[in-house]
Queue: 2 jobs
Job 1
Amino acid sequence: MMEYTSGNAIVDKMIGVDFTGNVIPSAWYKTVVNKKTGKPYDIAITLLSDIVYWYRPKEVRDELTGEFKGYEKKFKEDLLQRSYEQIEKQFGYTHRQAKSAVVFLEELGVVKRIFRHITVRDQQMNNVMYLELVPEKLMELTYPEKHVYKNVHASVPKSTQVCTDSDTGAYKNVQTNTKNTAEKTDKDYHISSYRDVREGVMKQIDYDAIANDFPSKQEQLDGIVNIIIDVMHGNQRTIRVNKEDVPGEIVREKFAKLNMFHIQNVLEGITESAVKIRNPRAMIITSLYNVADTMDIQMNSKVKMLLKKN
């Protein structure tokens, strides 16, 4: 048998070594960048590479003839199921690192988080996270000089009911369908994208107008907005308001009525307070919950004062 050589002993030893798995295009180090640091977002790049691997089609060939028969997906369901805990274990990241990277990829537009209530083996599982890859955006990130991609997949249908992205991620005992085949799955999913909820909230409160009025309070404004999105994107049965458990639906109904003036009022109240708050998130939720009533009281007081003067 003829032996082949490349002229380099080390390279020769690599002949026949067949690596499989994730691939990272060099362009991502320029297109998947942390806006704050201006540097490649390594964790997000690694995670995107893994997501792309699972969405890459698998060739199907005849076992005897080797004839190409077609393609099939690597996972069972219509989308790739993932939890933050699975990402943590696979790559050794912390929960915060895993979640931040997923949120970054969603804000970048290359991934969508979908949360579903599903039934597996007659057991109800809530808030199971799926990651939908957006091929057209992926092509832009991978081939920034071209921006051309004709094979666009249809997006997943959306429902009006939103689900939560809890602090612990998706249901921890759910194993990804890339490795585990569920015997029974309820196809009547409740689906909502975090990105869609975010866009709805930003429009509801007229975010750009508030940001324009409070240019020096951008960080506080974004904090308030993120809390509103978390609440509206959740399906918690109860939410802590003013040290009491209030039914989640009631809180979400209140938040669904918030407008620009409510947010401005809360923002002014936070910036005027000189007291160090131990739990700012709880304080903001309570403020947002009470703001409409508070503003009505303030207005009534002003009207009464004017009537007295007159």
Job 2
Amino acid sequence: MSKGRILFVNQEIVPFTDETANARFGRYVPQYAQEHGREIRVFMPRFNTISERKNQLHEVIRLSGMNLIVNNCDHQLIIKVGSISSARMQTYFIDNEEYFTKNGPLIDDKGKLCPDADERLMFFCRGTLEAVRKLAWRPHVVHFSGWFSGLIPFYLRRINKDNAFFNGTKCVVTLTDDNFADKFNSEIDKKLKNDGATAKDQRLYENLDYMSLMKAAISYSNGVVISSPNVSQELIDYAYEMKRTVLEYDSNEAIFYEKINEMYDTLAGANMEN
């Protein structure tokens, strides 16, 4: 019997991206959950640095083909899948020719965000949840990691308001040391309004930078995982101020991953059996 369904949305996953602490977290936390009886789905962006040939990615036709409107323009959602054979774990990739295949990095060598970073962020987060809904696979917990997944709780609320597919789903945000100094396009709050953002949402997302993005993610999440000793103390203090369930960093991965799974049970409770 499955011990619950966990959706992992990760910015980085080794071996598809370079091995960093964040990429290891994205790789091994889902594996631990799966090995301990949970049903999982794993999503990440198909950045143009990820080779389709090397990683043997192929398109999932039944999930691809829908269009998402971002800033009043249609953008095709393409879903690809690859496997980590040693872990028997599939990873779904959110792709789009304009936002990912052709364009360069999100942040350049000078620490500047690319001009359309806000729209790429919106497309990835919304596209992930739309793909999960198309799978007809309702997670008990959504655990997202990396700033590029930071709009997941906003879209989770927005989609659920429309049709209640994610009713009862809990949200866990990972705080790590992936901060940057630049600000997003000043129009992002207006673009989010087209996606159902309320006046309260817009106040959270105006003049958006890393700190405000992650504070908004904390505000709309149930649990917070501190995955690095270098996480901003301001964000940690904010999580406690908002009275979220907080799991402090532990350098012992086995113990840390076990505690993360215990958090899933604490947050989702009896719903895990449904």
